UniProtKB/TrEMBL annotation, chain A:
It comes from Amorphus orientalis. Residues 30-364 form the Leucine-binding protein domain. SUPFAM superfamilies: Periplasmic binding protein-like I. Belongs to the leucine-binding protein family. The keyword Zinc-finger does not apply. InterPro entries: BCAA_transport, Leu-bd, Leu_Ile_Val-bd, Peripla_BP_I. This is Branched-chain amino acid transport system substrate-binding protein. Keywords: Amino-acid transport, Signal, Transport.
Automatic annotation (TrEMBL), chain B:
It is found in: Cell membrane. CDD domains: TM_PBP1_LivH_like. The chain crosses the membrane at residues 7-29, 49-79, 91-113, 133-158, 179-205, 225-252, 264-283. Its main location: membrane. This is Branched-chain amino acid transport system permease protein. The keyword Transport applies. Keywords: Amino-acid transport, Cell membrane, Membrane, Transmembrane, Transmembrane helix, Transport. It is a multi-pass membrane protein. The lineage of its organism: Bacteria, Pseudomonadati, Pseudomonadota, Alphaproteobacteria, Hyphomicrobiales.
Amino acid sequence: MTRLRRLTRLAAVSASALALGLTAAAAADPIKIGSVLAVTGPASFLGDPEEKTLQMYVDQINEAGGVDGRQIELIVYDSGGDPNKARTFATRLIEDDEVSAIIGDSTTGATMAMVPLAQDYEVPMISLAGAVVIIDPVKEYVFKTPHTDRMACEKIFQDMKANGYTKIGMISGTGGFGKSMREQCLDVVGTYDIEVVADETYGPSDADMTPQLTKIKNTDGVQAVINPGFGQGPAIVTRNYRQLGIDVPLYQSHGVASKSFIELAGDAANGVRLPAAALLVADKLPDDDPQKEVVVNYKTTYEEATGEPVSTFGGHAYDALMMLVAAIEKAGSDDPAAIRDALEQTSGFIGTAGEVNMSADDHLGLDVSAFEMLEIQDGDWVIIGEN
Amino acid sequence: MAEFLQFAFSGLTVGAVYALVALGFTLIYNASDVVNFAQGEFVMIGGMATVFIAAVGVPLPVAALSAIVVAMIVGLLLHRLAIEPARGADAVTLIIITIGASIFLRSAASFIFDKQFHTLPPFTGDTPILFGGAAILPQSLWVLAGGFVIVILLWAFMSRTILGKAILATAANRLAARLVGINTSYVVGLSFALSAAIGAIAGILVTPITLTRYDVGTLLALKGFAAAMFGGMGSPIGAIVGGLIIGLLEAFGAGYISSEYKDAIAFIVILGVLFFMPTGLFGRKSVERV
């Protein structure tokens, strides 16, 4: 009796196992894309819209039949912006999940912790972080979508030069972004015949920057001030700037390219100039702008799906996913090496950040023209263009 | 001279907030010997709750009052659910509990509110007042005046009311206080609620200047703790003086020396004071007499 029961059970188990195997073979394996993002933690304002964007568009692609008839399986891990966690999750994506490509991380520190893994295991990785070190020098398997801080400096200095400013003050945040951008700006400023005559810093969570700004105000000959920084710091700098009645133009970085900066800085934001991606001013772009369609589409899709205002950070994830999907289609396989080769040949891709033309020695593929120069007027951005 | 005044204004404004956080530390420490590292979270709750309550259309003053009540309830819960059950535990255990509570409150805030920075409109506009060539925001005057009023009210409460005297008695000797019929558990709970209210008021006053977010409490708790240590843990006057001095040190340090070392300057001075005067500026003696 017991023997019979055991036999039936065995038969049942083998039958279901067989059935499972059959269904699995019937549908093609999904293409696995891994992602490590700072969804929570201090950099969550980067990772949060990035994750939403990836999920949203992967679902859309799958509903439309996937890539080459295969579904995309997206695996997202939350690094919280912590380099150690990012490294652990990247290892897990490569070794356990066996992904074909990785998108992430959101921050430069965490990205740099993942870079050696991508290189060693030869898995292509598209970073969504800002600093230029990620792609300079070029690393075979590492790409990135956001503009670099160096390009932002150049865009600002172009505008300053056009306005005839030669002596400027600088007040930078000491967080990762501000520090990196300060170095890039100092490195590149000489080529524009501009001299930094006052160079101050502030902590990323400081509540008052009037002492530093007072020093800049009292420095002779300052014609404009630039503030590389991120988070609430630049908003406080902007308020303190007006409070002290400093009357030379204030330039902010693309780190404040969001509506929340305008809200936080209030009326003090009027007249602030900043370089930003076209996405920010999607509706205001001229109709013949090649980016118009892409950015307007992304903006509407994101805002309808999430009910939140679009940010350039989500746009970086959009660009990464679309470039990756195009590369997989072009490669015709999910082999990491083939995807890498196809990614490197990306050309004429129009994303939210601009037109991307990659090559063997440029894994970013954007140039300074991808930035728009904006001025904040009455709580909104106005494109001031080339002058 | 204008430069000096500007640095002084900046230092006093920031210092007043440190002082209020330090005062909260002192109040709880005196009543229960707990160093409450969740003190910064009360400041955050004050600012954030006001922002969110005002966002649903409640007038600002009402929103601010409700936020204070919210913070007091959180303070009471913190005492009831986390501190009271661990009564008799050693100081390190209690510190770990409050650090845990602060992490919990921060995460809860990031879910209940959101992860964005927020601000409140300044109470009386943001046209700076010029004084001797330096500019001061009307809101800074609110912060300073608010801090001053709180200190006076607290002093009056402590020395003129039965409840206040009960807190002092509990602080001096818990057993003796119980023997004369004071419900010490109630009194310690009260000190948590009071200190939460002080933190929340600081948060509301300062948010128009410094902005607020779910995680602003961490740094404030650190600076407030430094101020309390500097002034002498347990001494209310020490808390105020310590907070103002640290704020001024930071501002003058950033202005005259270098903004690179701003945070370091304050801490080096504190280390120096503690090294040569281990009990801080206003040491233990004054505590016994509070």
